[in-house]
Amino acid sequence: MATSMDFLINYVNADHSKATNPTDYIELDLVHDYLIWSKTLADLMTHEPTADELNAAAEIIDPSIAVTVAKCLLMDYSHDRGGSYYTHLVKGMAENKKYVYCFAFDAATATEPQLEAWDTSAHTTYAKHVLGNGTPANSMVKAVCTTTTLPGAGWAGTAIAGGSNVVLLNNGSGALGGAADLYCNLKIVIPAGYSTPAAETFILCVRYTWA
Amino acid sequence: MIYQLVFDNNEIFNGGESLFDTKWKEIPLNKKIRTIIYFIPTQAGLILSGFEKIYHYVEAVKDLNGIDSGKIKIEYTYLIIKKDNQYIQYRINQQSGDVEVNILEKDSKYIAGLNPSFWR
């Protein structure tokens, strides 16, 4: 049978793996849940944030220094964790933390799974500003594999966009021999004085294989 | 059926009916494959023989957000054969049926990163 993959975020302690502390993680219901990148949006909101609230909480471009978007939050449609909360702060995002975003595979793969970013679900273009405006190396979305090691203080990561600028999720060690939890850390870094403010969405996806 | 195998002893093995259940891992390890007939959407089948060993996989993409979030989309399947000390990859587009043939470097990280238990 095909290998399947679940996507989870750590909302308690980014020093804890899913294997040792499974309750630190929320598995995303990918039909209803989503990630929000924001400067000031509150953790533990009791309603789904409105467009006005998202706009008011947006990160601000700095004229002289690159800005890392301060927060990533899970919008939890089922709001059934720890009370009736719709937003949960992703712990350890952009920090020197290992167990932040988790990809849980239930069986072996035929090649190494990889994380990608695209303009749309067609997976054909990467022209949005957040993805480097056509130049993948300029993508503002930075990712680093943390499956085996911490990313390091002030980690730079790989600018991900398109099919070439990707992050291998098994640290370059190839296909999975069996069920495994892989991890990465992510951040969005807006260049200093970036001239085109925008509210853009992009698609994060995982490419994986089975025999 | 995705594919059909003919072993050296003339026995036949039929692959799965779905790319989500290919039955590749059920191919006996102790039987040498003489020929594979690989059925491709909208195209004639691909027939390969004379190889030392063969590898097959299905490549899927799962979006983590957006309109197709959570759906598993199969874009390509792959056959890799080792023949005459060369690795030849057949990349099969599951929408168009187009087949791209690539000669791979035998010492490449890609080859080294394949799952050794899936070679037949």
Order of helices and strands of chain A: EEEHEEEEEEEEEE
What share of the residues of chain A does DSSP label as strand, in percent? 25-35%
How many separate domains make up the residues of chain B?
1
Q: Helical element count of chain A?
A: 1
- Give the oligomeric state of the chains in this entry, treating copies of one chain as homo and distinct chains as hetero: heterodimer
- Alpha-beta classification of chain A: mainly beta
Distance between the termini of chain B: 19 Å
Strands of the largest sheet of chain B, in order across it?
2-1-3-4
Q: Which word captures the global form of chain A? A: globular
Task: Tell me the number of strands of chain A.
Answer: 13
Helix share of residues of chain A? Answer: under 10%
Could you give the distance between the termini of chain A? 9 Å
Radius of gyration of chain A: 17 Å
Helix residue percentage of chain B: under 10%
Low-confidence stretches of chain A: none
**What is the makeup of the main sheet of chain B?**
4 strands, antiparallel
The gross shape of chain B turns out to be: globular
Q: List unreliable stretches of 5+ residues of chain B.
A: none
What is the count of helical runs of chain B?
1
Summarize the structure.
Chain A is mostly beta strands and 211 residues long. Chain A has one helix spanning 51-56, and strands spanning 5-10, 25-27, 34-38, 67-68, 71-75, 87-89, 101-105, 114-118, 141-145, 158-159, 167-168, 180-190, 203-210.
Topology at a glance:
The complex is a heterodimer of chains A (211) and B (120).
Chain A: E1 5-10, E2 25-27, E3 34-38, H1 51-56, E4 67-68, E5 71-75, E6 87-89, E7 101-105, E8 114-118, E9 141-145, E10 158-159, E11 167-168, E12 180-190, E13 203-210
Antiparallel strand pairs in A: 1-2, 1-7, 3-5, 4-12, 5-6, 7-12, 8-11, 8-13, 9-10, 9-12
Chain B: E1 3-7, E2 12-14, E3 33-38, E4 46-49, E5 53-63, E6 72-83, E7 86-93, E8 99-104, H1 109-112
Antiparallel strand pairs in B: 1-2, 1-3, 3-4, 5-6, 6-7, 7-8
